Give the backbone structure.
Amino acid sequence: MKRLTLMFIATALFGCGGAPAAPADPTDLTENIAEEVTDVADAVPTDPITARLAAMPEMTLTEGTPPSFKATPAAVTGFAAMMSMRLNGALQQAEAGPCPAMEDDGSFITFTANGCEVTDSTGATTRLLGTARAGYRVDEEGKKVLGKDLIELNGWGDEKQIDCGGTMQTSRTEHTGSMQNNLRMIITTTGMALSADGTCSAGDTVVIDYGLPTRVENADGSDTWNGSGTIGGPDGRFTIETIDEVTHSDSCRTEPMSGRTIIRAGGREAVVTYDGATSCDDPGMANWSLDGADQGQTVVPRCSAGGDPSGFFPALLALLFVRRRRTA
């Protein structure tokens, strides 16, 4: 940032109108440039996702406590697909009218909820929130299909009642961010959050900045995944990188065949190594180490094994919330 700003300042000083007159004291120019750099750097806005992640402390990795590794490339891809599916559901609702409101500019559709309510087949009412904008294509039957190109969300989500042990509680979830060449999202749940196992916990915020995952379809029917990103939650911020994760649901549905996922935080490094090709367990298990020291085995999330990835987001939230609750 400072180096780039110095280039801009140097251009302003020397690039146009000839060279400036030398100051009486050469140190004055250095001091003035330093002040300019500080002022300009402070004025440059930081995008909210980068800012939120930077403000979070790094997560603490400790012996005997397996870290989160649900944010694998397959799971992130699944989450993006799930969000596209939900937006296509909103399109059907909007076309039936009147909730949510919809605008079509020929390339993108924008949804505006304004707190409107929809009722499902069971009679449960959901209040829709925020706005969403998505590119679309028209299929062979002339139907619009969302998910092409950019998806932008601004507080897009819902508010509804969930069953928490026989007591109905309010759960409000909002998504702000984008999906295109990467997944960059702030996901905030207030009230209660429903975990993948059906239990409830207090809502909070998860921030995701994950690059475009790569998937290679192999001749034997398996897939090889690679991807990396930064995740932030109640327990802090960590980076996660998955290297050559091979999934093959016909051979092992409960865990990846091979590959590894590396979690880094606070100067420490946890490595999860998959071995489904030689030891396909149910539930799936993987070996993990911390700073090179063996830590035994940990359960593999289903979404990391090439199964149904739609559970990635609630599972990620649940794990972060449960870890905080246990360590509080």
